[in-house]
């Protein structure tokens, strides 16, 4: 990947689903020329990834949150799984600020300098998902009692 950066074929290197130890191994690699610019991880109020986000930000690595809405259409979701978009606390915050729950979930990440990549095939929602900017300090997001809940299982790798 570093050679691709040198050749001008890619602008920056991104990594995904790497943990703290794996990132540290890259950063400590002798002769490292181009450190990763971005880490993409599952992240939402049920899985805030606080330590990993802080670590990356302290190293100048920008974090991107995938499944920021809790990936409700994932094929392996069980009916009894808690739903971020239906979470009463998040709904309460949304109502208070006249926003949708999706917008609160996206704004939560933006306020902590985390990039969000919600997926939607619905034009109305795509527009809605962009309408999360502005100056007003929404939230204090009360974190729901579902911390550490993953929607994706990351298999160990030799990275
Ligand atoms: N790096 C990785 O390992 C990894 C793993 C998983 C996902 N990703 C990436 O992350 C991105 C998003 O993740 P994701 O699709 O798992 O989860 P997500 O964005 O949290 O959820 C997508 C679901 O939310 C619905 N939705 C979108 N906007 C909404 C809104 N405003 N109100 C209500 N529902 C809304 C979508 O419905 P409709 O489409 O029907 O509107 C879809 O069912 C994707 O681009 C994916 O490729 C990366």
From TrEMBL:
Molecular-function annotations in GO: oxidoreductase activity
Domain of life where this protein originates: Eukaryota
InterPro entries xrefs: AKR, Aldo/ket_reductase_CS, NAD(P)_OxRdtase_dom_sf, NADP_OxRdtase_dom
PROSITE patterns registered for this protein in UniProt: ALDOKETO_REDUCTASE_2 (PS00062), ALDOKETO_REDUCTASE_3 (PS00063)
Annotated ranges, domain NADP-dependent oxidoreductase: 1-132
UniProt family annotation: Belongs to the aldo/keto reductase family.
PANTHER family tied to this protein: ALDO/KETO REDUCTASE
The protein's name: NADP-dependent oxidoreductase domain-containing protein
């Amino acid at each position: 990947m570093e050679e691709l950066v040198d050749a001008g074929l890619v602008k920056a290197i991104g990594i995904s689903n790497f943990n703290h130890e794996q990132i540290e191994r890259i950063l400590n690699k002798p002769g490292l020329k181009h450190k990763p610019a971005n880490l993409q991880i599952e992240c939402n109020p049920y899985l805030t990834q606080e330590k990993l986000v802080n670590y990356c930000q302290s190293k100048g690595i920008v974090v991107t949150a995938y499944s920021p809405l809790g990936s409700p259409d994932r094929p392996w979701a069980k009916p009894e799984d808690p739903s971020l978009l239906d979470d009463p606390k998040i709904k309460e915050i949304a109502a208070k600020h006249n926003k949708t729950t999706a917008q609160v979930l996206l704004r939560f990440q933006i306020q902590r300098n985390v990039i969000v990549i919600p997926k939607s095939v619905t034009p109305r929602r795509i527009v809605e998902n962009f309408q999360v900017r502005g100056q007003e300090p929404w939230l204090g997001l009360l974190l729901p009692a579902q911390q550490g809940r993953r929607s994706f299982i990351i298999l160990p790798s030799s990275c």
